[in-house]
Amino acid sequence: MKKSKASDIAILAIFIAIMVVVQVLSQIVYSMWPLPIVPTLLHIPVIIGSIVLGARKGAFLGLVMGIISVINSTILTTPLSYVFSPLQPIPGTNHGSLWALVVALVPRVLIGVFPYFIYKAMKTRTGAAIAAFVGTATNTVLVLSFITLFFGQYTGMTFTNLIQLIVTGNSIAEVIIAVILTAAIVPSLEKSR
Fold it and tell me: What are the CB-based long-range contacts (under 8 Å, 24+) for 54-58?
């Protein structure tokens, strides 16, 4: 029992390290990136961790992703940093909003939950691909919906804009990358466990 817990903690630490490396490398690459499409990649280790380690550990990895998002938006300011960090002031005010924590954390925790149950029902490479699609869609739909709901008056986001953003190049690129990587990696990890 103790060996199993130690092993799970070590695996969680490896996933967190991968997430930090992905975040740092993404920032470096995207600072020189010539294309308008800038896909989020940090959700992929969360999806894979959810499938391999279970919903509870997946939710923890999702929480870590959300915390990374808050820290990133607090340190590296962009015009929309205030939607992910309560420490960034909303335009036209001198204060942030705690709703930013809902935007940054809730969808990311759920990325770590839903894929596990999808994969558990199927346990195939196709199941892993569908789990990746669901995890990615969870992130995209909930983050954009929460931004529209809580910050729409500041961002100018409407329901129509929300739908358009959900089906844009970024979202499509994120789904394709997540599906390919998850379907390729999960079966190998499952065999090794």
Answer: 54/116, 55/112, 55/113, 55/116, 55/117, 57/8, 57/12, 57/112, 58/111, 58/112, 58/113, 58/115, 58/116
3-state secondary structure of 86: coil
CA distances from 148 to 68, 72, 83, 103, 138 (A): 22, 21, 10, 10, 15
Confidence class for position 31, pLDDT limits 50, 70, 90? confident
Q: What is the chain's mean pLDDT, rounded?
A: 89
**CA–CA gap between residue 19 and residue 144 (Å, rounded):** 22
The label of the residue with tokens 């929460």 reads: 146
Q: Are 61 and 15 in contact (CB under 8 A)?
A: yes
Contact by Cβ (8 Å): 182, 44: yes
**100-121 confidence digits (pLDDT tens):** 999 999 999 999 999 999 999 9
Token digits of residue 55: 């919903």
| 43, 173 contact by CB (below 8 A) | no
